[in-house]
Specification:
The chain is of the alpha/beta class. The chain contains ten helices and 15 strands. Strand 12, helix 6 and strand 13 form a beta-alpha-beta unit.
Length: 329
């Protein structure tokens, strides 16, 4: 039986367009598990795939969607049975393989994680890759000694998906959160998520001295570029920065001084190829560490037909919080 999918096509001149089409199960890629997708979401990479940016999509036609949550329809792998609730993030699904913007997806069993009982499939996609990356960042900072009494934690790009969820998690765990944003009109939104203070992005985009006054006990950085370079100069002794994004650019122009005089740690956070055990550990923490009222406050729900129009918006930083794509709307 055919089903709905958002299909991206490229014409001979290289122009990319997308539309909802009916496709057949026989067109799906190979894999051990077929999932009836209930929800997906919108991430920065999805914006690139929807618009043909970044060279992520190599073959057309293509079905984007780097995240998906739903129930198992068929499985040839003993780990999963029909009706099991599962979530998938990463593994380059939605980039080099067809992804979650379809009512059916066929994937490798190794890429799936059983969904914890206290997380619905909708909430799983409100979390998605962005929330998963935020949780990995918090876990890495705490593994390197971060504790609430040490002071404020800086969260850059705080109105985006990673930043919003990181702010909510950290606040719920008792941390003071300094939320950095270039959108001052969204300060009430950040305060509602639990931010104790709001920092203007332009105050952190200009270069300062190689070492400035100690301000931050930790940092979740989703921006990179000049903002990350400036934040490094303001970290407290022995503190850590979790680098999880590059919305402000991939280049990092800095000195080694914060690392050798203050013992600052720069921790790289990858959400794509994380081992299974780390994925299970991260998903297990959401029920306790991310309040549902704060999660729901950052969510906009859209249909499959609507998501294509949001691709350019997320690339411009115009999407607040999280977008959940309802595959059955």
């Amino acid at each position: 039986m055919s089903f709905n999918a958002l299909v991206v096509r490229q014409d001979p001149e290289g122009a990319v367009s997308s539309s909802v089409e009916q496709i057949e199960p026989s067109q799906l890629p190979e894999g051990e598990v077929t999932v009836a997708v209930e929800y997906s979401t919108l991430n920065y990479k999805d914006g690139l795939c929807l618009t043909g940016g970044g060279g992520l999509v190599r073959d057309y036609p293509h079905v984007p969607g780097i995240d998906l949550a739903g129930t198992v329809e068929e499985s040839t792998d003993d780990r999963y049975a029909k009706g099991d609730r599962v979530v998938l993030t990463g593994w380059r699904v939605g980039e080099v393989r067809w992804g979650g913007y379809a009512q059916l997806a066929r994937v490798k069993a190794d890429w799936l994680v059983p969904l914890p009982e206290d997380i619905s499939t909708r909430n799983a996609m409100a979390i998605g890759t962005a929330g998963f990356a935020a949780m990995l960042s918090v876990m890495a900072l705490e593994d390197h000694g971060l504790e609430p009494e040490q002071g404020e934690v800086l969260v850059t790009g705080a109105t985006g998906g990673v930043g919003s969820i990181a702010t909510a998690i950290l606040s719920n765990r008792g941390y003071g959160v300094a939320a950095l944003t270039g959108r001052p009109e969204l300060e009430p939104y950040l305060r509602d998520l639990g931010a104790s203070s709001v920092v203007a992005r332009q105050d952190m985009e200009t270069a300062g001295r190689p070492l400035e006054s100690e301000r931050w006990a930790g940092c979740v950085d989703a921006v990179g570029g000049a903002v990350l370079a400036r934040a490094l100069t303001q970290m407290k002794y022995g503190s850590s920065v979790a680098a999880v994004g590059l919305a402000g650019g991939p280049r990092l122009e800095t000195t080694v001084i914060p690392f050798i005089l203050r013992g600052v740690n720069l921790l790289g956070i990858d959400s794509v190829m994380q081992p299974y055990a780390n994925r299970v550990a991260a998903w297990a923490r959401f029920g306790a560490d991310l309040p549902l009222d704060k999660l729901n406050a950052m969510v906009e729900s859209v249909s499959l037909a609507e998501v294509a129009h949001l691709g350019p918006a997320i690339l411009k930083g115009e999407v607040r919080g999280r977008v959940v794509v309802d595959l059955n709307a």
